[in-house]
Design brief:
The structure is a single chain. The chain is of the alpha+beta class and 613 residues long. Helices cover 39% and strands 22% of the residues. The protein contains 22 helices and 22 strands. An eight-stranded mixed beta sheet has the order 5-4-3-6-2-1-7-8. The protein has a five-stranded mixed beta sheet with strand order 9-10-13-11-12. It has a four-stranded antiparallel beta sheet with strand order 16-17-18-22. Strand 14 and strand 15 form a beta hairpin. The longest helix is centred in the C-terminal third of the chain and has 19 residues. The protein is globular, with a radius of gyration of 29 Å. Bound molecules: adenosine-5'-diphosphate and magnesium ion (MG). Adenosine-5'-diphosphate binds next to helix 2 and helix 5.
Length: 613
């Protein structure tokens, strides 16, 4: 009989390591996530992230945490080396935190790594150089307490992977995403981020609110609505955004379960559903919410790069989250106050029925969710009012106008809209203008006060948005193209924004170092305003999180809207005033200007009577 050759061979350690590494480290952002989490786990209060070329050349994390002994420093790069799991009782922390002792080993398999680390009690630190898993050097060194780890030339030994990396803009965006998540989950830790020598974030230690402001800009504060609910099953805390801060694309949506970032389309749905009637169907509300739940009731996927979860009772999670958000919106007078009730089906779930300790009962009994959900005989969700609809009905004509508006728009898309056109519906109402800045008009239940400038901004904003979404903003070629000069940093920002700008009618192209040539501008833009607008746009973009791409379009549009409204002046004629009101109420969000300020308010008849005593 002929001998059959055996063909199975063991992969070399080298290759096995690279394969395993590929699961954990997919791009520079994965290394960033792992290193930042290690710094946090080490108890750091200050963490610095230094990047070169979107992390492709360098990802460096410097922390002031516990540091490592020389032996631990060497050990930390071994696969399955972890100080975070000692015995089987710690296994649940694998489920919740994803500790597997794999990150450093994986990174070391596919990069050139250099680490300096010192424990507080040691006099000298340890300096370690590793390349593709091979220890090149380990020697004592002087080092501050903590760990300083440099990951250079990621995938230098796996060309296929290195080749697979996306553009610097994209990779940097992924990094900022990870950085943002870790920074949000740990507001008590100070973080700084440098990219190619430029400091991009400087986040002081503080609370969640200051952290959100640090990441998104101070202007964001006015858009935040706190959420705070405690039940025996689940604690929910954090912030949601006011409806007008909702964006057209996703980006600023964060759920953390037991302080760990997760994605969940299901929970997202629960949240968005709570905004029904307050935001447009396709809009994404802002949220940073922390859900605390008994780890035994949640299964966070063990895989380090997946952030998916399974809940024991997901319908209950849905109902609680949904109600908590509705409650927060109602409490801050954003949505009309609602009666929340739970369907009987959900009330019968074991989690709702489960026995509770005296302490936890006392703790939560005052809570809003507790009270609403433990009442007997609740029918399913009570009638919900739609505040937007309410306003519209209040100002009767709105719907008709909206109808005509859309027809007019689709019939004649390129005409520059004018606020001073003859109104389609002449509604014989008395309108009074107060010094050209406010309009007063009567409605059924009293007087309505309208802020003219803000109304104009809202109207322009929605027109521009519609054009933006249609991709059909009219542009007007300049007779004499302008040259526009910027600093090197602004030039970068402007370059990244050119595509967006072209979508609102700017025809700009790079023209040598830090200089651009402006050949076309939006038709509505008055001559001489071009440079101002660009200056403003750049100024605003600078103060935004670099990854806030969704916000970027909105910033552009809001800016343009403001600019265009500024040139309109007061409204002298009754028809112009009526047209403004009609158009305002044809908007999808007439109540707020693009920046969130109120456009109009209602003075009730009773209040007026009260004034007269
Ligand atoms: P894990 O975090 O799952 O334990 P890692 O591979 O990320 O696995 O890290 C291995 C071990 O190295 C950690 O358990 C920890 O003891 C040590 N370590 C890693 N980074 C740091 C750091 N920045 N400071 C102190 N110890 C660290
Ligand atoms: Mg780790």
């Amino acid at each position: 009989m002929q001998a059959v050759p055996d063909i199975i061979q063991l992969l070399s350690d080298h290759i096995a390591n690279q394969i395993a590494a590929g699961e954990v480290i997919q791009r520079p952002a994965s290394a960033v996530k792992e290193l930042l989490e290690n710094a946090i786990d080490a108890g750091a209060t200050e963490v610095q992230l230094v990047l070169k070329d979107a992390g492709k050349e360098l990802v460096q994390v410097i922390d002031n945490g516990s540091g490592m002994s020389p032996t631990d420093a060497r050990m930390s790069f071994e696969r399955h080396a972890t100080s975070k799991i000692r015995d089987i009782n710690d296994l649940f922390s694998i489920r919740t935190m994803g500790f597997r002792g794999e990150a450093l080993a994986s990174i070391a398999a596919v990069a050139q790594v250099e680490m300096k680390t010192r424990k507080q009690e040691s006099e000298t630190g340890s300096h370690l150089v590793i390349e593709a898993t091979e220890v090149k050097k380990q020697e004592p060194c002087a080092a501050p307490q903590g760990t300083n780890i440099m990951v250079k030339n990621l995938f230098f030994n796996v060309p296929a992977r290195r080749h697979f990396l996306k553009s610097n803009t994209t990779e940097y965006r992924h990094i900022v995403d990870e950085f943002t998540r870790v920074a949000l989950a740990h507001p008590q830790v100070a973080f700084r981020l440098w990219h190619n020598g430029v400091e991009q974030y400087h986040l002081e230690a503080g609370n969640l609110k200051t952290r959100i402001k640090g990441l998104l800009g101070n202007a964001y504060e006015k858009n935040l609505v706190p959420v705070e609910e405690k039940t025996e099953f689940l604690n929910i805390s954090g912030f949601i955004g006011k409806p007008e801060a909702a964006t057209r694309t996703r980006g600023m949506q964060f759920f953390f379960i037991n302080n760990r970032f997760i994605r969940s389309a299901y929970l997202h749905h629960a949240l968005v559903q709570a905004y029904e009637g307050l935001i447009e169907k396709e809009a994404f509300p802002f949220y940073v919410l922390f859900l605390e739940i008994d780890p035994a009731r949640v299964d966070v996927n063990v895989h380090p790069t997946k952030q998916e979860v399974k809940f024991e009772d997901d319908r209950l999670m849905y109902a609680y989250l949904n109600a908590a958000v509705k409650h927060a919106l109602a409490k801050y007078n954003i949505a009309p106050s609602l009666d929340f009730t739970l369907s009987p089906e959900i009330q019968q779930l074991s989690s709702v029925q489960m026995p509770v300790t005296q302490d936890s009962r006392q703790e939560t009994e005052k809570g809003y969710l507790f009270n609403t959900f433990t009442q007997k005989n609740q029918a399913h969700l009570a009638v919900k009012k739609d505040s937007l609809r309410e306003w519209k009905e209040l100002y009767k004509i709105a719907d008709d106008i909206a109808e005509q508006q859309t027809q007019a728009d689709s019939a004649n898309m390129v005409t520059a809209p004018s606020l001073h056109k003859e109104p389609e519906t002449v509604n014989a109402k008395g309108i009074i203008s107060i010094q050209g800045s406010m309009l007063v008009t009567t409605v059924k239940s009293g007087l309505m006060l309208i802020h003219i400038r803000r109304a104009q901004e809202r109207i322009w904003y929605e027109r521009l948005l519609a054009e933006w979404n249609n991709g059909s903003t009219p542009s007007q070629q300049l007779l004499f193209p302008l040259s526009y000069e910027t600093s090197a940093q602004d030039a970068l920002l402007l370059t990244e924004t050119l595509a967006d700008l072209s979508r609102i009618g700017f025809d700009i192209s790079p023209f040598g170092q830090n200089t651009f040539v402006v050949q076309g501008v939006p038709t509505e833009l008055p001559a001489g305003e071009e440079k101002h607008v660009l200056d403003e746009v750049i100024e605003q973009l600078k103060h935004e999180a670099p990854d806030a791409v969704a916000k970027r379009a909105e910033t552009l549009l809001a800016n343009m809207a403001r600019r265009l409204s500024r040139n309109m002046g007061g409204l002298q004629y009754q028809e112009g005033q009526q047209a403004l009101i009609d158009e305002l109420f044809a908007c999808s969000q007439p109540e707020y200007a693009p920046d969130g300020r109120k456009v109009f308010t209602l003075v009730k008849k009773e209040d007026l009577e009260g004034m007269l005593g």
